């Protein structure tokens, strides 16, 4: 089964064609915390930086909603505790 960060990157590349996309799994930084009680080093905390042309003229809230609408089913299915998101116009 592919790593959660790889799957997230694939979804965002396919759906938004970003000019900039960085997906980092920082789960290990939260080992033992309530969102990562099993001390998993992968798949509980993901950081995304994304820029794409479809964000042009949209507020930051609208940009984040665009990303969350694509990722929400995946995040729930995988049990991802935290998604840190930074969006930018391309």
UniProtKB/TrEMBL annotation:
Signal peptide: none
Listed Gene3D superfamilies: BolA-like
UniProt-listed InterPro entries: BolA, BolA-like_sf
Membrane spanning stretches: none
Entry superkingdom: Bacteria
Pfam family, one: BolA
GO biological process: iron-sulfur cluster assembly
Family indicated by similarity: Belongs to the BolA/IbaG family.
Protein name: BolA family transcriptional regulator
